[in-house]
Amino acid sequence: MKLNEIIDIVKASGADAWEITDTREEGWEFYFIRRRLDQNRAKLVEHIRVTVYKKSEDGQFLGSASGEIAPTADEAEARSIVDGLLHNAAYVRNPFYTLNGPFEGMDQAGNEPVDPAAVAKDFIEAVRAVPETATEDINSWELFVSALNRRFVNSEGVDVTSGYPSCMLEAVINARRDGHEIELYRLYKSGGCDRETLSRDIGEVLRFGKDKLIAGNTPNLGKADVVFSTDAALEIYEWFATRMNAAFKARGLSDWEANKPVAEGATGDRITLTAVKRLPNSSRNAACDAEGAPVRETVLIQDGIAKRFLGNRQFSQYLGLTESFQPGNLTATGGSQSAEALRQGQFLEVVEFSDFQVNPMNGDIAGEIRLAYWHDGDTVTPVSGGSVTGTMADFAKTMRMSRELRQYDCWLIPAVTRLSGVTVTGAV
Q1: Strands 364-376 and 346-358
Q2: Which residues pair with 69 in a beta bridge?
Q3: Are residues 310 and 400 in the same domain?
Q4: pLDDT tier for residue 103 given thresholds of 50, 70 and 90
């Protein structure tokens, strides 16, 4: 069934409002064992997702329900799905809100030309160029390269198409020493392929594997400085972003206020968090968000001061926000020192966690250490085991960030983040 036929069915259904997203994905999948290609396949799929809205009789509430209509569905099946969604939407009672309308430049949103075969070739050559050793190598890896084309249409007149790449690489790294062997897993997401960065990152993990095999026990440090220099740091910056999310604020889960500090009495670096339309090689470079709102550069936090909450249409309206959207790419800056300077003195640099989380409600952090480096001021020792705990509510006041930045797909954050007063429990 064609998209225009589904649009006609939804229009005639009696829905008070509607949204339809048609996503076409063309791509390649590759499965490697070491450097040998085990199998590969091409992929061409289409997903059509429909959301219908129904107002209450008094107009005070708006219900919604979503579902997928397969491109292979016939007219009767499509009508049945839409009727079922309308039935379900009538039971949902959210305070009334409106959908996004047309915007200037909507017709020029445009596509980013993508050749999945060429992108795949870049990834394969980059991985095969990573230098391995007799004791550290890539055991297996899987590559998924896609060119996405997303058309969004709604009842208010929005009709916009965005095209962009989205790639994922999973790798299992092996390290061996004296009859012992370990595995380290990595998942990389991106738009296109940044060969230099990918090669550096995998090389870094090969070194981590080697050091994990000679790591001693993490000492019981009590309160200590902890440095984050790998993707675990994303949890820290996502905590800031979540607390500036419109839904989080509207539900009373964030007590931050616009034009007030996010950390009272801060003496460390003051973060600036910005939503940006594009980042090189990001997989989130769509011109619009999932609800058809145009993405544009917007400062959420500036020099430690909350400036603007952003989020989906529903909760943005509840907060009285105009021209809001759901950020795709985010940058965090504000570091006053170099990465080298932040690695001075005594500190624990944790590079591998079994698990690391930051609670978005209260900022509590918890992580089980798989590999870290204890810097005692004179020597650097690989260590393993133990945990880190504390709360970002305190750490945000003294947090220090490097001027140098590192990109993780749709995030650009300080390459090194140093938190003070973290509780480090040693390995038993």
Answers
A1: antiparallel
A2: 48
A3: yes
A4: confident
Close Cβ partners of 317 (under 8 Å, ≥ 6 residues apart): 97, 98
- What are the DSSP E strand ranges found in 196-296? 216-217, 222-228, 272-276
Token pair for 415: 């390459």
C-alpha–C-alpha distance, residues 58 and 95, integer Å? 11
The answer to whether 368 and 350 are in contact (CB under 8 A) is no
Over residues 319-330, the mean pLDDT reads 95
Between CA 358 and CA 235 the distance in angstroms is 6
Nearest alpha-carbon partner for 270 in 359, 412, 358, 401 = 401
**Interacting residues of 49 by C-beta distance below 8 A, sequence separation 6+:** 20, 21, 23, 66, 67, 68, 69
**Could you tell me which of 234, 241, 247, 252 has the C-alpha nearest to residue 314?**
247
Same domain, 279 and 343: yes
Query: Taking 70 as the threshold, does the pLDDT of residue 108 lie above it?
Result: no
> Mean pLDDT over residues 287-313, rounded?
96
Domain end call among 210, 245, 271: 210
- pLDDT given at position 109: 64
Task: Check whether residue 195 and residue 234 sit in a common domain.
Answer: no
CA 66 to chain centre: 23
**pLDDT of 340 over the 90 cut:** yes
Mean pLDDT of 25-46: 95
- Residues 105 and 231 grouped into a single domain: no
Contacts of 110 (CB under 8 A, 6+ apart): 162, 163, 287
Residues 267 and 131 in one domain: no
Domain boundary among 210, 228, 258: 210
Q: Which domain holds residue 147?
A: 3-210
Percent of the chain with pLDDT over 90: 93
Closest CA to 327 of 276, 398, 379: 276
User: Could you report the per-residue pLDDT of 37-52, keeping only the tens digit for each?
Assistant: 999 999 999 999 999 9
From the DSSP assignment, how many helices (H) and strands (E) are in the chain?
9, 21
373-425 pLDDT, tens digit per residue, is: 999 988 999 999 999 999 999 999 999 999 999 999 999 999 999 999 999 99
Per the structure, the count of domains in the chain is 2
Pairing mode, strands 380-384 and 216-217: parallel
